[in-house]
Every structure is written in C-alpha cells, then in structure tokens.
C-alpha cells in the first residue's frame, strides 16, 4: 500500500470522491457509488472502518439496517430485491444478540429518513430512553406518531424534519440542543389548530441555535425570540388551509418593531394576508436578499395595505429576489378584472435582480411610463415576470418596452402582457443581446404578424421564439413561424461559419 494512503485525510478524501453522486435522482449512480464503497470496505483493515462509515452514513428507512440481522435478511430481500412492508408481520422482535448487530451499524448513520412505523415493534428490546443513533445529524420523520422517536433523538442532531405538530415537540427541541435546521410540515391538509400553533410557538422559543426554520404560523413572542438568534438566516412560514383569519391574532401581541439582523431569506405562504401584513409592518429585515410570498387578498384595500407594509420592511438596499403570488379564488375576491397597483410600492427595492408577480384575479397595472420608471430603479434586473389577468388590454407597447430595456442591460428573462397593435418602435434601434427568454401575451388579436415578428427578430437577436403564458392568443405561434423563417433566411445568406 502506498504510504499516502496511511494518512487518514488522504483516503477519506478518496472515499468522499468515490461516494460522490453527480445526479442524486439517479438510482443507478447511487447504487454504483455504494457498491464501490462496499468494495473498499473489504479491501483491507485500514479501509474497513472509514468505508463502513461512508456506506452507512445515509439511510432511507430501517430495512437496510434490519437486513444486517441474519434472521431477517431473507425476509427483506427475497429474490435479490427488497420486498414491501408486509414482511415484518408476525415477526418476532430482535433478540439481545440481534439488537447488538443492529446497534453496531446504527451508530454509523448520519442521515435517516423514516416513512413507516411497520418495523418499530422489532426494536422493542431496545430501551425506549436509549438513543440508538448516537451520531445522527439529519432526521426526516414522516409519521404522525412519536412512539419510538426517542431512539432517534441524538445530541448531535442538526437537522430535523417533522410532518406533524405533536406533544413531543418540546421534548425534541430540548434534547437536541445542537439543532440548526427545523422543518415542520403537516401530513394532512387540515388547518393548524390554536393549540397546535401555541405548542409550536412555545417549542420554537426553546431553540437556541437555529439557522433555518420552516413551520406553520408563529405567535409574535416566538417571532421576537427568533430575532434574537444570531445564526438565523432562513425563515419559512407555511399553512396551506388557513383562509381569511388565523385561530389567533398576531397584531394584538405586537408592541414595537423587531429587527431580524441576519435573516437573508424569508418565505411566507399564509393565506391570511393580514398575518403577513402584520409581520412586515412590525419587523425590519436589513439583510434580506430573498423574499417569497403566497397569499390571498380579499379586497383592493387589503392589497394596498399589504404592499405598503412590504415596502416598509427596511430591505430596500438589500433585496435581490422578490416573488409574490396572489392566489385566485374567483367570486370570493369580488374584484375580478379590477386594477391592482403593485409596481409603485416596489420601486424602492433598488437592488432587485429577480421580480416575479403573479395575480390571476386582477390585472396588475403597468404602462409605458411606469415600466420606464421601474427599469430606471432596477438597473440590475435579470428576470422580470408580471402575470395578471388577461381580461384587460395591455398598455405596454413595443416602443415603451424597448425604451425601458435600454436601462436593464442584464435582463435575460421577460414575461409581460403587451399591446402588439402599435409596431412603431421609434428611435429604439439598439439590439438587446442579453434577453433570451420572452413570454408575451395579449388580450387582443395580433393583426400585423409579420411586423411583430420582424421587430422581435431585429431588436432581440437571442430570442428564438416567443412563449405564451395563456392559451388566448394562438397568433403568437404564427409569429414564431415567421421568426424561425427570418432566422433561417439570415443563416442561409450568411452561410456556414468558416472553420478555423
């Protein structure tokens, strides 16, 4: 053996390279990596232990571990492949000797995904207060039950993903003091109850080391606790079934603005716009670079309050990515076809690189002058997508669009409603070479298809076709056919590129 392989850092780097999977979704690639690591484990005594650590570092389900028990292996791997969960029915629990076999390998596991409780009865010999996975760093628990959960609560646990709010939540965050990443998603689509949300807020307040938090809505006392966590950088709030108002009010608990000095990413998917408005009104995010919001607005008045609060969150000089989706609920909003004035409230975010606005229940107002003002305020913009109702004719013309594009030299993706009737682009003769993806749509018929095609061909040389984000105007397909013809004719005239 080469002397370099006797240096732990060297062969651990080699093992990491062998174990690396370029495409995590490729079953074949992952199987090849595991097979290679298993081969290294049988090469020599020096390689055995570190290779076994790599081999068992990440496990989905308990079956591979149970398969190490001689008695259970033929039940789990019939005919060379893993069977369904029914194999464990009426199977006796592990004996003391078998439990030692199990624990020898479980001590190596760093990441574990638990999706079924079919096998828990086999572990009944292991004391419930014992942690069977002492080096576990990441746990995904896709069960509503917490029975046997203590077996998995390692002191080294850094990441925990749960799919229910249950009474054991406080125990989890208390035992796992090193927890940095906590995610709580509900398995069902029922709204969280007031008791669940109260338990969640109380539990979050026990976390001291959080870097990332994703969970249903919190009370303001919990929000204030989060503002005091120096390592917290990502926060996500999500509750899919709450419509209108939450089981309890957030505003009643708020006395003064709270600063989240280090939070850079914030995601709010709560269909009570009042909750989001209250958070933004009473919080300051001076380091925020990414903000995603999905909510429901019941009136234009609520929308005005919502966007005004958004512009006051103290992120004007830092926000780079902003995505807002206003979910449509038809007649419930009572504003179908109404004008929603959004863009003026967002002009203060001068560092924007990505802006996505989606509002299916209303037309997002944008005309040539407002687009020009927006472009002058967002010189770093790379993606601009504004998708509203197509029930109103667009007030953006090609002349207005190309005038604004001169102020956004880095823009590569554009999605807007446009008025194709006026094909006079005025003095805008400069080609916009960075724009590559264009989604246009219109509520009116495109009459002058050849002129529209020629405008796009001359002004946007890197755009191969125009995508539609609705199916209302099939004339864009005809525009694309003309565009393809123009590009083909140009290539034919220019001839093939000479070889070097």
Descriptive account of the structure:
Helix content is 31%, strand content 17%. It has a 15-stranded parallel sheet with strand order 1-4-5-6-7-8-9-11-13-14-16-18-19-20-21. It is of the alpha/beta class and 500 residues long. Helix 1 crosses helix 3 and helix 7 packs parallel to helix 8.
Task: Supply database-style keywords.
500 residues, 15-stranded parallel beta sheet, 16 helices, 21 strands
Task: List unreliable stretches of 5+ residues.
Answer: 329-335
Portion in helices: 25-40%
Tell me the strand order in the biggest sheet.
1-4-5-6-7-8-9-11-13-14-16-18-19-20-21
Number of strands: 21
Shape estimate: globular
Mean pLDDT: 85
Radius of gyration: 29 Å
Q: Summarize the main sheet.
A: 15 strands, parallel
Distance linking N and C termini? 48 Å
Sheet/helix structural class: alpha/beta
Q: Count of helical segments? A: 16
Strand content: 15-25%
Layout of secondary structure:
Blueprint: H1 8-19, H2 27-41, H3 45-55, E1 58-60, H4 63-66, H5 73-76, E2 77-78, E3 81-82, H6 96-106, E4 111-114, E5 138-141, E6 159-162, H7 169-175, E7 181-184, H8 194-204, E8 212-215, H9 220-227, E9 234-239, E10 258-259, E11 265-270, H10 273-281, E12 283-284, E13 290-295, H11 300-311, E14 321-326, E15 339-340, H12 343-346, E16 354-359, E17 363-364, H13 368-377, E18 383-388, H14 398-405, E19 413-417, E20 437-441, H15 449-459, E21 466-467, H16 475-494
Parallel strand pairs: 1-4, 4-5, 5-6, 6-7, 7-8, 8-9, 9-11, 10-12, 11-13, 13-14, 14-16, 15-17, 16-18, 18-19, 19-20, 20-21
Antiparallel strand pairs: 2-3
Helix pairs in contact: 1-3, 2-3, 7-8, 10-11, 13-14, 15-16
């Amino acid at each position: 053996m080469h002397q370099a392989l006797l240096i732990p850092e060297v062969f651990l780097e080699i093992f990491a390279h062998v174990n690396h999977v370029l495409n995590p979704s490729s079953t074949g690639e992952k199987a090849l990596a595991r097979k290679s690591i298993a081969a290294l484990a049988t090469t020599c005594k020096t390689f055995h232990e570190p290779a076994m650590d790599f081999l068992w570092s990440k496990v989905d389900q308990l079956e591979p571990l149970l398969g190490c028990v001689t008695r259970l292996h033929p039940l789990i791997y019939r005919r060379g492949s893993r069977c369904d969960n029914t194999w464990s029915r009426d199977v006796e629990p592990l004996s003391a000797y078998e439990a030692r076999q199990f624990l020898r390998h479980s001590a190596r596991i760093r990441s574990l995904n638990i999706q079924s409780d079919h096998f828990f009865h086999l572990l009944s010999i292991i004391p419930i207060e014992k942690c069977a996975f002492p080096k576990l760093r990441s746990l995904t628990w896709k069960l509503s039950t917490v029975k046997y959960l203590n077996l998995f609560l390692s002191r080294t646990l850094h990441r925990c993903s749960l799919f229910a709010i249950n009474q054991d939540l406080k125990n989890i965050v208390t035992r796992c003091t090193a927890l940095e990443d906590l995610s709580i998603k509900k398995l069902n689509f029922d709204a969280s109850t007031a008791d669940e949300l109260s338990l969640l807020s109380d539990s979050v307040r026990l976390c001291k080391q959080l870097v990332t938090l994703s969970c249903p809505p919190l009370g303001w006392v919990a929000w204030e606790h989060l503002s005091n966590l120096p390592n917290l950088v990502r926060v996500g709030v999500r509750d899919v079934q709450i419509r209108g108002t939450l089981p309890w009010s957030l505003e009643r608990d708020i006395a003064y603005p709270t600063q989240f000095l280090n939070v850079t990413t914030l995601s709010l998917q709560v269909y009570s716009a009042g909750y989001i408005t209250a958070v933004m009104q009473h919080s300051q995010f001076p380091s925020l670079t990414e903000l995603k919001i999905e909510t429901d607005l019941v009136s234009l008045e609520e929308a005005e309050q919502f966007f005004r609060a958004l512009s006051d969150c103290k992120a004007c000089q830092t926000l780079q990515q902003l995505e807002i989706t206003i979910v449509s609920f038809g007649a419930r909003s009572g504003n179908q076809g109404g004008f929603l004035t959004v863009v003026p409230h967002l002009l203060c975010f001068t560092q924007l690189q990505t802006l996505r606005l989606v509002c299916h229940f209303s037309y997002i107002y944008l005309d040539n002058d407002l687009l020009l003002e927006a472009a002058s305020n967002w010189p770093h913009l790379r993606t601009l997508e504004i998708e509203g109702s197509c029930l109103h004719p667009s007030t953006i013309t090609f002349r207005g669009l190309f005038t604004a594009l001169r102020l956004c030299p880095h823009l590569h993706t554009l999605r807007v409603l446009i008025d194709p009737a006026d094909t006079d682009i005025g003095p805008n003769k400069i080609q916009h070479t960075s724009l590559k993806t264009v989604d246009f749509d219109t509520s009116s018929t495109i009459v002058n298809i050849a002129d529209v095609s020629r405008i796009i061909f001359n002004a946007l040389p890197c755009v191969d076709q125009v995508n539609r984000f609705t199916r209302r105007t099939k004339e864009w397909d005809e525009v694309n056919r003309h565009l393809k013809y123009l590009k083909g004719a140009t290539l034919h005239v220019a001839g093939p590129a000479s070889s070097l």
